[in-house]
Amino acid sequence: MQNYVQKGNTLTVTAPYALLSGGGCQVGNVFGVSVNNQNPGDSSELVVEGVFDLAKDGSTFVSGAKVYWDNNQQLTTANTLTATGGSTKEIGFAVLDQASGTAAPGGATTDFTVRVRLVPTGFTPVGSADLDPSVLQKTVVALTAAQIMGMNAAPVNILPAPASGQALVIDQIAVEVKPGTVQFAGGGAVSLPYQSGGVTPHSSNIPAATVTAAAQSLNVLPVPAAVVQPPVATGLNITNGTAPFTAGNGIMVVTVFYSVVTLQ
Questions:
Q1: Whether residue 107 is found in the same domain as residue 198
Q2: 107 in helix, strand or coil?
Q3: Domain that holds residue 36
Q4: Do residues 150 and 250 both lie within one domain?
């Protein structure tokens, strides 16, 4: 096809300020990571797709949380990524979970960077909703042994609360239990309720015996069969009933497929 130009994962822009290789840059509604050190006014290459560790402010993130670029803040500090929306530009989402079970940077205030998956947004006004939240999304959260043993008393947040006037619609959940050298004991059935309590998207719970078993397992909770009324501006937690799990040193990987619906 004669009108094909390029793949589009890199774009050429005029540097609006001094750029460092690996640093973020916003030009109009285009955001990317600079390939080289550049002076203001230079013709510059930006990578607009991929996963990068980029400097952030004191914000904290969970996997799947939206990440924003503060172009005004860029002029005064290198910490230019934030969890605060509004006049900032949405550039992608945090990806903190790794196969090793060790979280990538971004979950703590003291982390200097956050690992972010850039999402090309096209040419939409700064501050608008660049990502369509109504499409099916996925988040993956790895629970440590301490979180598994503590979630009876302190439920662990899996999905943060959406904005006012929005609700999380949970589609399907997969929970992988990966035993360590010491099996968990005790506990009770695992469930995933909304943070407000009283509303659980799935009628199926994961038995305690699944968590305390010596064998690794993948447990899929299907799409809810009954009517669910999700509370507005409320996140999703994971917890267990009866009593805490004890003694184990395995992990649990929770994958949630969901969408965000804005009430009309």
A1: no
A2: coil
A3: 10-118
A4: yes
Total number of domains constituting the chain: 2
In this structure, are residues 208 and 242 in contact, taking their beta carbons and an 8 Å threshold?
yes
Closest by CA position to 43, among listed 14, 81, 78, 2: 14
pLDDT tens, per residue, the chain with 264 residues? 677 787 788 899 898 888 889 988 888 778 899 999 998 888 999 998 889 999 998 888 888 888 988 876 655 565 588 888 767 888 888 888 877 778 889 988 889 999 999 886 543 333 334 445 556 777 878 888 999 999 999 999 888 888 888 899 998 899 999 999 999 999 999 999 998 777 888 766 899 999 999 999 999 988 877 788 999 999 999 999 999 999 999 999 888 888 888 887
Does residue 150 sit in helix, strand or coil? helix
The helix/strand/coil state of 174 is: strand
Q: What is the CATH number of the domain that holds 239?
A: 2.60.120
Token pair, residue 167, equals 């609700």
Q: Is the pTM of this model over 0.70?
A: no
